[in-house]
Fold:
Amino acid sequence: MAEQQNMFPDAQKRADHSGSVAVPRHQKPTRALEGLKVRIDLTVKELARLRAENTALRKEVESLRKGALPEGEGTVVTFTESPDELKARIRELIASIDARLEQARKNASSEA
Structure:
């Protein structure tokens, strides 16, 4: 069998001992470029996520602005008790305050 003539003689010169052919450096994908591509892909995904979050936050801020009381109009307070329970508790407090005020009047009139 005759020895074949190599079409690419330079490739034969670059062959290493394992038989693989070395590729010119400008054709090799380098680790740095591959790493950079991965980082760019991650950055693009993170930017998309942040844009979506920003849109959701803008909508939330807008809804809060629409539902907020005008400045100086008071404060929104929420209670865990039912309205009836609150009214009963307030009445108890008013009765307690009235009793103390009455006691203070009696003490003041007896001292005079």
Summary: The CA atoms of residues 28 and 104 lie 96 Å apart. The helical segments are 9-13, 31-67, 83-111. The chain has a mean pLDDT of 79. The first helix runs from residue 9 to 13.
